[in-house]
Design goal:
About 55% of the residues lie in helices and about 10% in strands. The chain has about 950 residues and is of the alpha+beta class. The longest helix is centred in the middle third of the chain and has 32 residues.
């Protein structure tokens, strides 16, 4: 039996299911390659079977593949045709495998004429079987046999596999006869899916055809319902594992929600159920429209382009579109910057819009499948379907004849319901919200096909705006209905300003989601607080929200507070302008409009004040109160701030931020009410001390009294109770040991951090020394709290970014860092030696933030405030605090904040005499010195033109 070698995928056979017309000749010369291999065999005394011949074959193939892939990449860089690139790579792989197989049979084993039992078909399965490969893709092969394996077949398979492995390919393989394939495909959905996507690379055509015929009749026939359920369940599990949102700012292009695997699943289901071979066939059947077919093709080509570029850039199978890759891929795909949006942000917006299209296509196909399955069948099953239909038949919705309830989902009563009355495009969401209904896929499909009806007239329609406001302020689950509205495209068209930020990412490690996803999550947080679901996490906000009369104001502000992101001007100011235009349209009066616009413009003020200012400084409170002006505004801003921070991403919110916000609120409240407050500062201080004393009930009364006198009032007012208890336990143990220096390590898997507490005698260089030890250990400080105590000691609490997944490993790392801290503070080691032993760790090259140093004497009556902003890196806090110590600045309080890749560190300082820094020359010197430390990690400060601080102000305190 002669074998058939497939040189490229243009040589398709009539019954092939994946006919891919690709001309491979510009990339690899299959005839020339075979001829050169034949010469190697002819020159070999063993006819090509010797080790020397194998080495020559390997060298020739390696060079051929390198050149072919180079040509494919060059062509890809010119046309950015992702699907074509994937098909070309697969076609080249075909040539390589077919040529090796041919060479092995003819020359290595000398068996050109095969017996019936020696027949074999080498079949590409899985992704390779679809006729597509990324540069780093695995190669999945099925060696198909008519009966059991023969000696010759085993030799050919072994020769081929070892050559492919030596060429650097990752090969997944199985050797089976047809009976085994059918048996395993029946039992295992993964194997069934891989055989569903198959392609004959080389070998016996009749054997391959037999597999196809038996697979269709014995596996696929009558099992589509089970296959669909399995694939959708698999898809849901994969989404849950990767965050269950398509709007993560570092998406997984292959496995993530809206990625290539979702498109694959969509086509697997369609191919299995409708017995189609191409997406075009789905359009011919009427399952999807021509427009939706173009959407499928566009999404597939774009996602393949991104994936192939990622593999080419990294030289490996990298599937996560990380921050450091995004600028490079954006450049390769030809994106340019626009005012307010970087080129990378425009690229990622396009990516997320494509991911949204993939979700839309999935829902459209599922609707078609559901409709088909709903049709009654003859016989017994038909009776069952009829009974089921009667039980879940359409129910009326009071007040409308345009919609009805279909199995607890809202559905349209006619295909012209939106054309007849465009207000129904908003009313449908209001009815679903008020009746707590899901959305029938047919309804969403018709909505998407009716979006052109949303025009200026509908946007100005009073009833439509009133209905929208009802959805936004729904008391049950507004986020769910707004999300469906956004996914259907209605929200972005009804509010065009919102449409501009749909799928928009912010190129920042701090923001985990796209802007529209962040806004919807903000609404969800507000609704959950209002429903009392977050009382434990947010006791004050949960109490305040019950007294809020302006619900509409709070919900509108939550929805639009970031609506002006991506513009050249400050998004808060531009957003306030949007609010003043949008609110009257939604039916808000002048007072409500003013409130919303103020909230949008100042939505960051409370979080910045709490985290970056000394809220125990009276000037801070007075300035903040001047900005807020009324208690009503303070209440609204407090709730909005909490919802906003929680919606940034996992782990961004923590108890410390909550305590800071509550303290800022309680310090500001009496200023706004003329002294009338729910509790005075003295009462809050007393209550805090009493709560801590109650938690220390096992201590003796004398111990408790002595300990409570150690801390200054600000400690009790700004530190969460649970942390106070942990600090008390640590300080008590350290004091009983008699050691002047003590450390303790704690890990937090949920927040992804490691905490180190340090108790030591206070001195001006303490924080600098501790930070230096952390830098010497290669640890990055994400946050730091400094508490001085009345007995001359200081408690410094450091929050470090986690390095290891396992707690045991992270605890060992923490103890090692603690050892560095003790050695440095005890004079047993030096910062210079510790730092010199560390390899420099630079932040991702994708991010660049010009350092900024500002010195302000108006923010505090007692202290000079030094605010430093720039690109975060390990050792930054050590460098900055060391520079301040060298400049003889006494740090009275430090406020360390990290927003992804950006660090914002604020220090309240005085000179060594306890006065503000007022000299212009010294201010310039401080700015120059600190800027230098930002731009030159670990270096010594500049000395040219700068007089050492010691010569002016004397030596630093020990």
């Amino acid at each position: 039996m002669s074998h058939q070698a497939v040189s490229n995928r243009a040589n398709v056979v009539p019954d092939d299911e994946n006919a891919v017309q690709i001309d491979v000749s510009p990339f690899i010369d299959s005839v020339g390659l075979a001829a050169r291999l034949t010469k190697i065999a002819e020159a070999d005394s063993a006819g090509g079977a010797s080790d020397a011949a194998r080495g020559a074959v390997l060298s020739l193939l390696r060079e051929t593949i390198r050149e072919a892939r180079g040509r494919i990449e060059e062509s890809f860089r010119q046309d950015n045709a992702g699907l074509d690139c994937a098909k070309r790579l697969a076609s080249v792989q075909d040539v390589v495998i077919a040529t090796i197989h041919d060479f092995a049979l003819r020359h290595v084993f000398g068996s050109s004429n095969l017996s019936a039992g020696e027949r074999m078909a080498i079949v590409a399965v899985g992704g390779y079987g679809r006729g597509t490969l990324a540069p780093g893709s695995d190669i999945d092969l099925l060696f198909l046999l008519p009966y059991k394996q023969t000696a010759l077949g085993e030799q050919v398979v072994e020769y081929l596999l070892y050559l492919l492995w030596d060429l650097g390919f990752k090969v997944g393989h199985a050797t089976r006869d047809i009976d085994e394939c059918i048996k395993l495909a029946r039992a295992d959905m993964t194997i069934r899916t891989s055989i569903l996507e198959r392609w004959l690379i080389v070998g016996d055509q009749a054997l391959f055809d037999e597999l196809g015929q038996r697979f269709e009749s014995e596996v696929v026939e009558g099992t589509s319902e089970a296959f669909i359920a399995a694939k959708l369940a698999e898809r849901s599990a994969r989404h849950a594992k990767l965050g269950n949102t398509r709007y993560l700012v570092e998406p997984n292009v292959k496995e993530g929600k809206g990625g290539l695997r979702d498109l694959n699943t969509l086509f697997w289901i369609a191919k299995y159920h409708y017995r189609v071979r191409t997406p075009e066939a789905l359009a011919e059947l009427g399952v999807i429209s021509r427009r939706e077919l173009r959407l499928f093709q566009k999404a597939e080509d774009f996602l393949w382009a991104v994936r192939c570029h990622m593999h080419f850039v990294t030289g490996k199978a990298e599937e996560r579109l990380s921050f450091d890759l995004q600028p490079e891929i954006a450049d390769r795909l030809g994106y340019n910057a626009h005012p307010g949006l970087k080129d990378v942000e425009r690229f990622m917006k396009h990516y997320f819009l494509i991911a949204k299209d993939v979700g839309d296509l999935t829902r459209i196909l599922c609707a078609a499948l559901e409709e088909q399955h709903a049709k009654p069948a003859p016989g017994i099953s038909g009776i069952r379907n009829l009974v089921r239909s009667l039980r879940s038949r359409a129910k009326k919705i009071p007040g409308t004849i345009d919609f009805h309830i279909d199995n607890n989902r809202i559905n349209v009563s006619s295909p012209t319901v939106f054309k007849d009355d465009p207000v129904n495009l908003v009313r449908v969401f209001r009815l679903a919200a008020s009746n707590e209904l899901e959305y029938h896929p047919d309804t969403l499909k018709l909505i998407r096909r009716s979006l052109r009806l949303i025009n200026g007239e509908l946007r100005e329609n009073r009833e439509a705006n009133s209905l929208f406001l009802d959805v936004l302020t729904d008391r049950t689950n507004p986020e769910f209905h707004l999300r469906r509205m956004n996914e259907a495209g209605v929200l972005g068209r009804f509010i065009p300003e919102f449409g501009k930020i749909v799928a928009m990412m912010q190129f920042s490690m701090y923001h985990h989601y796209t802007v529209d996803e962040h806004l919807l999550r903000t609404i969800d947080n507000l609704s959950r607080i209002e429903r009392g679901e977050l009382t434990v996490d947010h006791p004050m906000s949960s109490e305040l929200v019950r007294s809020i009369k302006d619900r509409r104001v709070l919900y509108v502000a939550s929805l639009i507070h970031d609506i002006a992101k991506g513009r050249p001007e400050d998004h808060s100011i531009a957003g306030a302008r949007v609010a003043r235009k949008l609110c009257p349209r939604l039916g808000l009066d002048e007072r409500e409009t003013d409130l919303v616009s103020w909230l949008v413009e100042d939505h960051l003020v409370m979080s910045m004040t709490a985290q970056q200012r000394d809220i125990n400084d009276r000037k801070t409170i007075l300035d903040f109160a001047e900005r807020v002006r009324t208690l009503e505004r303070l209440n609204l801003l407090m709730i909005l701030t909490v919802c906003d921070i929680r919606a940034v991403g996992p782990g961004v919110w923590n108890g410390w931020k909550g305590q800071l916000l509550r303290t800022l609120y309680l310090e500001t409240e009496p200023t706004l009410t003329g002294g009338f407050t729910r509790s005075t500062r003295a009462e809050r201080l007393g209550a805090s001390r009493e709560r801590l004393a109650a938690r220390l009930s096992e201590w003796s009364e004398a111990e408790r009294a002595e300990y409570l006198e150690l801390h200054y009032p600000n400690y009790f007012l700004t530190t969460p109770l649970e942390e106070q208890v942990r600090h008390a336990d640590f300080i008590r143990d350290a004091s009983s040991s008699g050691e002047p220096l003590a450390t303790r390590v704690r890990t937090d898997v949920f927040q992804g951090i490691t905490e180190i507490m340090v108790l030591a005698p206070d001195h001006p260089r303490l924080l600098s020394s501790i930070a230096g030890a952390c830098a010497g250990a290669g640890a990055n400080i994400a946050d730091a709290q400094v508490f001085t105590m009345s007995d001359g000691r200081a408690l410094d609490v450091l929050v470090l970014n986690r390095e290891f997944t396992e707690d045991a490993d992270e605890l060992r790392r923490g103890e090692r860092i603690s050892g560095y801290i003790r050695a440095l503070l005890q004079g047993k080691d030096t910062r210079r030696r510790l730092i010199s032993g560390q390899k420099s760790k630079r932040p991702p090259a994708a991010f660049s933030i010009h350092p900024s140093v500002r010195i302000d004497n108006d923010l505090s009556n007692q202290f000079t405030v030094v605010e430093i902003e720039g690109l975060d890196r390990p050792g930054l806090l050590s460098d900055l605090t060391r520079a301040m110590a060298d400049l003889n600045l006494d740090i009275r309080s430090a406020h360390i904040s990290t927003y992804g890749e950006k660090a914002v560190d604020v220090f309240y300082v005085t000179d060594l005499l306890g006065t503000k820094i007022t000299s212009d020359s010294r201010t310039e010197r401080i700015i120059a010195w600190l800027t230098h430390m930002f731009e030159n990690p670990g270096s010594e400060p500049p000395t040219v033109g700068i007089m050492p601080a010691e010569k002016v102000y004397g030596p630093a305190r020990p």
